[in-house]
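Problem: given the chain below (239 residues), write out its structure.
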Amino acid sequence: MKQILIAALLMITAFCSRAQTPMIKHYWLNERKLPVKINDVAQDSLGYLWLATNEGLYRYNGLDFVKIGGDKKQKATAVIYVGGKLVVGLEGGALVYVSGLKLLPYKPSGYNGTYDVINFNKKNKEEFWACTEAGVWAITNDKAKHLSTSSGLSDPYCYDADFTKDKAIIASDKGLSILSPQVSNAATQNVIVTDGLSDNIVRAISINGNKIFIGTQTGGIQLYDLAKKQFNKHSNLVT
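Solution.
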């Protein structure tokens, strides 16, 4: 009886150890098994994953990766699914959309971007913003509006954007710009180092209610209260 209990205990221990071991599987986008830089990932309404890479756009269905747009290598810098359409930013600022396995030109009225799209950000079901080093493009219903320092942005080099019900926040090379749609998307407030920001270069932001989580280039992570217009004194996280 004792031997049976010991054997059972060993089997349970082995099973638990195996269950706690994370499963890691490597996927390769090319037959040569060479690393490919992935710049952005999006998921569409069918559950497909779309990867914007330095070698172009790939679709993943859970089993296989398919190169979209043929064998031509054209750097895809960003990708977003919005309004039932998958939009891709290519090197040099050109925009395309996916039709089957083809990439077709996407030319919103008023858009003439010539710089890489650093990031796409979805505002609602129809509108998305494209962050570039020459400002932000707000695109809705195939029409584009350019926002830059003339709109009150603290700097044209923009990395990220996020939205509340009545504000848009832009992360740039010179802090945050807080915009109000009620005044034609003009910046109503800029938050920089002299306001308590740990580093002027803000690479990523995420909004939760009235709080903005701010990821800076060298100053770690901070938490900013939109309602109180001040930083949380205990929020700085620096590695």
